[in-house]
Structure formats: C-alpha cells, structure tokens
TrEMBL record:
It catalyses: Couples ATP hydrolysis with the unwinding of duplex DNA by translocating in the 3'-5' direction; ATP + H2O = ADP + phosphate + H(+). It comes from Micromonospora echinospora (Micromonospora purpurea). Belongs to the helicase family. UvrD subfamily. Its EC number is 5.6.2.4. Keywords: ATP-binding, Helicase, Hydrolase, Isomerase, Nucleotide-binding. This is DNA 3'-5' helicase. CDD domains: DEXQc_UvrD, SF1_C_UvrD. Coiled coil: none annotated. ATP binds at residues 33-40. InterPro entries: DExx_box_DNA_helicase_dom_sf, DNA_helicase_UvrD-like_C, DNA_helicase_UvrD/REP, HRDC-like_sf, HRDC_dom, HRDC_dom_sf, P-loop_NTPase, UvrD-like_ATP-bd. Residues 12-293 form the UvrD-like helicase ATP-binding domain.
Amino acid sequence: MGVHSGAERVLAGLDPEQRSAVTAPAGPVCILAGAGTGKTRAVTSRIAYRALTGDIAGRHVLAVTFTARAAAEMRSRLTVLGVQGVQARTFHAAALRQVRYFAPRLLAGRAMPELLDSKVRVVTLAAAKVGLRADRAAARDLSAEIEWAKSSLVEPGEYVVAAAKALRETPYEPARVADVFDAYERLKRGNGVIDFEDMLRAAVWGIEEHPDVAEQVRNQYRHFVVDEYQDVNPLQQRLLEAWLGGRDDLTVVGDASQTIYSFTGATSSYLVDFPRLHRGATVVRLVRDYRSTPQVVGLANAVISQARGTEARLRLELHGQRRPGPEPELRIFTDEPAEANAVAARCRALVAGGTPAREIAVLFRTNAQSEAYEKALSEAGVPYVLQGAERFFERPEVRQAMIALRAATRSAPADAPLRAAVVDGLTAVGWAPDAPPPGGAARERWEALAALVQLAEEYAAQAEEEPGLTGFTEELARRAAQQHVPTVEGVTLASLHSAKGLEWDAVFLVGLAEGTLPTTYAKTMEQVEEERRLLYVGITRAREWLWLSYATARSPGGRARRPSRFLPQLDRSGGGERAGGAGPARRAERRRPQVVSCRICGATLLAGADRKLGRCPTCPSDIDEELYERLREWRQRVAGAQKVPAYVVFTDATLTALAERKPGRTEELVAIAGIGPRKVGLYGDTVLALVAGATVDEVCPQKTFEI
C-alpha cells in the first residue's frame, strides 16, 4: 500500500470535525474535544496522516499523556495505522528518559540520583525536624502541599504568599508548612535523592542551561502532541516550552469542562488561552459524541450549560450520535442505606439481564461513601471491585479503629448509648466528632471514622433495644469478613475523580445531595464549579444506562438535606410512579420524576420551553402553520372576552406545541407541559376541535364576545 493510499485509509470514517483536526496544517493546533467525541482517534490519526504523507517522520514526534494506559493506547493505535517510531509517554516517563540519558553529561559523570517513589517518609522526618509530629494522614497532606508548590514553581520561601493567593486549605499554618517544605528539600539533598518534580525540573534545567543538550533534544523531537491539556500544571508547561524552544509545531487536545484536578496544581488556563498565546492557531471543536446515547448527552449538556467561570468559555454542546436509549433515572430515597440497597438490587437485575458486571459502575464523590455500597453489593451477592482506593475495612485507619473499639468493650459502661460508646472508643485513635481537619488525606481519614459512627447509629436504629459495643464490634467484624472476599470481575466502585477516562454501559451516580456534591468544603465559586464539572464527568462515563440518586437523610431518621444544586430541575409534578410492593429498598423510594425526551432525536429535555414543545430547539419543527394561526386567532378572541393578556390563556410555546404535536385525544392534550386539568376543563374540547379542522368561527363565534 502506497503512502497516498495509506493516508486516505487514515481519513476513512472520520467525521468532518475530526477530518479538520487531522488535516490541519503544521503549526499550533488546539483540538477542543468533548467527552466521547473520539479525541484519541483524531490525534493519532493526525500523527499518522502527517507521517504517511511525508510531512513528518514518526521518530521526530513526542506525544505526551497523563497516564501510562493512555500512552499505551496511543502507541497501539499508531501501530495499527502503520506508523512506527513515535514516542508516546507520560510527562514523567519522557523526563525520566531524558534525565537518565543526559545525567553523565549534566552531573559531571555521576549517575542520576535515586528517585523517591513516595514523599511521605521524608516528609515525616522533615516535619519532626521542625517540631511537628505528623501521622501518616498528615504526612500525606503535607506531601500533597509540597507537590502542589513544586508543580506550581513555588519555592519554600514563596509558599506562604502563594498559598494565600491560591486560597489553599493547608493542613497546618502556612508558615509551618513552609518550614516542613524547606526541611524536606534539605533532607533530600543531604540524602542524595530526588522526587518526581525534581526530575521534571532537571529535564527543564538540562535544556535551558545546556545548549548542547537543548540542541540534541530539539533535533530529536520536532513535533509535539499533548493529550488532556486542561490538566497541565506550570512545571509541565515549562518543560513543554523547553522542548519546543520557540517552535510552534504543537497539537494540544483537551476539554475545559473536564478540569477536575486543580487542587494538584493543574490549570486549564493554558488550554483556554491557547489561541491568544499562539497567534494563527487552528482551533477545532469535536462535538459529536459516539459514546453515550442522546438521552445521556442531553443530560450532560443540561448540567454543564449552567457552568460559570473561566472554563465555561470553552464549553462544548455535545451531539449524541448513537441510537436513542433509556431515559436517565432520578431516584430519591429516605436514607443512604435504602439508596445503597436499591442500587445493589438494580445491579443484580442488570447482571441477571445479561449486562456484564464489569460494564457497571457505581460512582460517588468521596471514598468514605464506598462502605454502604460494598455492604449492599455483598449482601445482594453481586461481585465488585474498588477502583483507585482500598476497600473500606482494609483502610489502615478503619483497621486501627476496629482494634480500638474492641479494646473499648472492656471499659465501656454496659448502659452507655452505642453512639456515645463508639465516639468515646475512637478517641484512642485521635478522632473527635467536631469539624474534620484541613487537608485531603486527614479529612478522608476523619470521614472514614465518621462512617463508623454512622454505622453505629444505623445498627442501633435497627435494634429492638439499645445494643452494646460488643455486639457492634462483632457486626463490624462480620461485615469486614463478608467484604474481604476477593473478586476477579465485578461492578466497579469508584470515586468521580478516579473514574476520569473510563466508561461503562451502566453508571450509577449516587449521593447527589448538597454537602456531598458539591462538598461542604467547596467555598469559592471556582471550587463549586469544579464540583459541577465532577458531576459532568460522571454523567459522561455512561454509554447507555444512567441512574442518579440521593437520600434525603444520611441515616434513618436523620437530618433532612436537599438535592444537589447541579441536578436539573426535572418535572416532579406528575407522570411519576410510587414505589411499593417490591421490598424495603423500593418502598423507600419517593415519586419518580418524569423525564421528557425529544420526539425527534431522543435527547433528554430539561428546559421548560423545550419540554413543552417536546423537542430540542435545534431539531427541525414540523409545525402546522395554518393550525397555529387558527389557534392564535381563537386565543385572541378568548383573551379579549376575558379581558386578560393572551398568554394567560395559552403561551406562544404552548400554541407551538399544539400546532406541532396535534393532539387528537384528551390524554395527548394533557401530555403537553403547561396544560393541566383546569385548562383542559376550560378549553380542551375547543382545542381538540380546532386541531381536528374546525374553524375559529365554528368553535368560537365572534358574537359570543361582543359586549
């Protein structure tokens, strides 16, 4: 096969936008790719097309990604397309390769220093040197702060000011964190080791300060591709600019609406500002979603359409390309155990119906939420795997807490309320029932132990009399044993963050209540918007079947809470079904909200006017113009006789819906949003007669309205 035919084969099957991205001329190219729009196909096809047409050589291309899995996928696709020699690596892998290669030259013949696989041990020592006793959770939070600072090009002496500007929620006073940061750097140098950020900095330093190294690197790599560009941090951007050396053969691909890692130092600003920073850049928008049904796509669009802030400037409206599927389900439960039991029951039904367990995911905001779903799935006999985290009862803090509670059984008063006994027992591991500590790891630890207190409340609520601490510890041991059974394949349990980049046939988005999503720790507008984007990422993980749910209370009889502000305002006025007769999980459900689909493309309709019309505003109208004019004339006569504005009779949107949908029966009439029983009683027969072909004079003689 010749070069020309190979290049044509690459273009075959691409949609117009993908083709534009693939064939864009050399130079700066920004591909704004929505979820499920085929970004990997577009970017690998661009590399292959340019290589097969002789525009570039594969060995001169460096494609950088954020995960080894994505890099491997890119290499695999390029091989299938017939292109060899392209280096597809993560930022860290590319930097490590270069630093190792140039180390003898940069370090006067010495080998590259040992690379730390984790900062925690050295940070713990550094904290001790400045008088802080940091447990593992605190050390993890201090490590995260140091990683954020170094990724943001912030030195120890600059940390306090930089943290204040970034509104960081620091695990200790910023000045104390800066002290630990400084001690950490000194300890590393003294021990002759480096961390991952040092490695990226070494790669930058090698190019910026050594012309011979810069010449060799830039001669090797002349064309660059960056995937997930919305997740780049300042240090990675500095390395990218060092590689480029002022050249502009750069293709970036990203989606600002999937910016969910800003707490690590990632920023979408480089993606947002790309056209401004690269004059004459080609910008291509991929908006055809091949992953999800129009119903899922419509819901995702509705959620992200309300976004505000910088990232919203590059918001994409996706267009579903798959055949219509089932409507997303929104379910409301009285408490979280009922929600978890209902999810487990539906998972079991899906598996029984032929859906592979590996194609089902339950996604939640925090890892501490996993326990209820681990328990419910175990009791339902549904295998599961936990993505990106340890199982609840395998977490170190939970194991320590269970040991402490067993020890507390020897001293707890026999008549002590269970919750009080558990809280008292957890003081042995440093837990207190006040506000959680700052810092992500410390907060996760606190929330995991708080989940044990909640379990105690649920256990007590189900008992006929106040249970003792001994019985509760035995219950915890039973649950732990039940959930420790290893599984090879099962339903995926994952946080929304760890679900990024993955997809499943069926997705459950659970716990969608205020205080959980958005979390109570989201204080600023920017933080709240990132929480909205988390929900958007969760929705776009579903290919076909999507369930959204929340519980009005955490535990039975608990304090009421509101649904997440990000949930679309679905119609709860009718069309729902009351649960009943199907076990406690379904009895706990409230009325199911009615979901309306576009009668033309099948997308979920959420805006009031769209729901009334029964179609998307962008879908073609099939209005009967003559009927619409008769309805308008009739409405004018009625409004004049009643001395009210015309919209009081029916709005323009309702008239349009009537002229498009042409109802022939009362049941079809009331299916149009905005036409309730009262208006059916007043105007129903007349409207049906007009739709059937009657003239205005026949149904509403002019003399009727003469004063």
